[in-house]
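Hey, quick one: can you model this chain's 3D structure?
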Amino acid sequence: METEQKRVMAVLDTNVFVAAYLSRNPNSPTQEILARWLNDEFDLLYSVDLQAEIAEKFAAKGVAQEATELLLATLAIRGVQVEAPASAVVAIISADPDDDLVLACAVVGGATHLVTYDPHFDVLGRTYQGIHIVDGLGFLGVLRSRPE
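Sure thing. Here's the predicted structure for all 148 residues.
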């Protein structure tokens, strides 16, 4: 008897979005992750705080306002919004409190994966409350290994 695989539900840290938008390599792992999301291969969880951080980081990196608005609109339409109230944000990553907002989104949303290139998350190890913490290539490995 076949068992049904659990749907992958991921939170992408802001640095994954920035890497995708700044990459000049059409085969970059981060661009492939976004393409796979748009192809409905996993659910992308986000919070209002994460949207605000994306807008802030994109502006700081010089990403065009139109590209930022398009991404945020696509998130609102295709993503799964998570209500992560202040009470859900636990101070765990002291090196960067903004990372606690990302983690809260993953925990409250029931994410299977948190995808990041941020070394501040290393204090959590490879999993936190059942959430796998991986970089872009690690996450692609998960997506590529799933049956179509």
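One thing worth noting: The beta strands are 9-12, 43-46, 80-81, 113-115, 127-128, 131-134.
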